[in-house]
Design brief:
The chain is an alpha+beta fold. The chain contains 4 helices and 6 strands; from the N terminus they run ββββαββααα.
Length: 146
Amino acid sequence: MSTSYQMKVCWMIFEMTWNSEENHYEKKSGGEIKFTKEFREFIYARDGGECWYCGVKISRYEDIRIDHQIPKSRNGSHCESNLVLCCHKCNSSKGKKTVEEHRKAIQIRTANLPVTFSKIQIEWLSCHGFELPLPEPPVFNGEKCE
């Protein structure tokens, strides 16, 4: 069966959905997976060719990165709803963090605090009622409603 694309209205936004009975990835040795070219192109088109996190336009096919919002290491699926287009820089900085952990890491990194705190120190301070003066949490490009 060939790959087809279907448009549906979702929360007043047009959202493309993957409609195929074919698998959209192949398993490689060592447990790694490789998404098919058609699926990578689908994610690119669905996300408008922009990084889901920072919004940078990704113009070269070689620069496409597919990110798991819930990381594979935390039982995130290869389902299209868990996958987003992102640039190399955002994919590298997010790593194995969830979207919310990545958001918090950006807040802390951009906080302009006089002292650098580790994640454990920040959690301890929070548990004991100390709040750090953090900037507003970032709104990622893919979360913006136009």
